[in-house]
Specification:
single chain, alpha/beta, 7-stranded parallel beta sheet, 14% strand, 262 residues
């Protein structure tokens, strides 16, 4: 790939104030892209302090609650007025809640579906016109192993991630004869704040220390016994956004230590 490939490309990573989203956004910054960080309630100053000073000029931060369509529309208006149209869209924003279905809060269900699925519909519909005009675009949906398999007590999350994988395929097919591609990455356990909370809950429930709970959580699902790293996922995002991935369309890439191999 040319060293200048990402220079001045506008990249939006939703849910990028921490964890996996932050790592993906930072990876594109290192390649010279103009990266829009997003979250519901962080600040640009907070994020800048986490980024190498030499990269800060290419970062922009716009807050938006991804459960609210009007805020997503406003986000795209701000990006267009300050940077131009989005070239690479990484739909990463996600939230989680655990509960058996009969006790699952209706409000929690609606919110998870809104953030984990509907937000990607809205960002995609808003990004596509500019991408089609340039005849170039990359849309990458960060799904999960739960886009392929189920887990108890995660009805909304699993439903949303299965839906997001379906959306990926439809967007890919609708744009198959254009320069716009759409693919999905389905990571297994990545030690983000979201997963740390699940480890802590497991430790509390089963009276384990954090390290023992972490190992138990991993081995229940991930045969490798190792967490997927942010670097591994962000590098795959970079590849799928590149020239070499032009004819990868509607695909789902599992990076899950063998979770979905059986």
């Amino acid at each position: 790939m040319r060293d200048t490939y990402y220079k001045d490309k506008v990249v939006l990573v939703t849910g990028s104030s921490s964890g996996l989203g932050f790592g993906i956004a930072e990876k594109f910054l290192t390649k010279g892209a103009k990266v829009v960080f997003n979250s519901a309630n962080s600040s640009k100053k907070e994020l800048q302090e986490l980024i190498d000073p030499s990269l800060r000029n290419n970062m922009t931060y716009f807050p938006a609650d991804m459960s609210v369509p009007k805020e997503i529309e406003s986000l795209f208006e701000k990006i267009k007025s300050s940077l131009g149209t989005v070239d690479i869209l990484i739909n990463n924003a996600g939230i989680q809640h655990l509960s058996p279905i009969e006790h699952f809060s209706v409000e929690k269900w609606d919110n998870i579906i809104a953030v984990n699925l509907s937000a990607s519909f809205h960002t995609t519909r808003l990004a596509l016109p500019g991408m089609k005009e340039k005849n170039y675009g990359r849309i990458i949906n960060i799904c999960s192993a739960h886009a392929l398999v189920g887990s108890a007590n995660k009805s909304a999350y699993v439903a949303a991630k299965h839906g997001l994988l379906g959306l990926t395929k439809v967007v890919a097919l609708e744009n198959a004869q254009t320069g716009v591609t759409c693919n999905a990455i389905s990571p297994g356990w990545v030690l983000t704040e979201l997963v740390k909370k699940q480890v802590e809950e497991l430790a509390k429930t089963e009276k384990l220390d954090f390290e023992s709970a972490k190992k138990k959580l991993l081995l229940e699902k991930q045969p490798s016994g190792k967490f997927v790293t942010i670097e591994q996922v962000s590098s795959l995002c970079l590849f799928l956004s590149g020239e070499e991935a032009q004819e990868i369309r509607g695909s789902s890439f599992s990076i899950d230590g063998g979770w979905t191999a059986t």
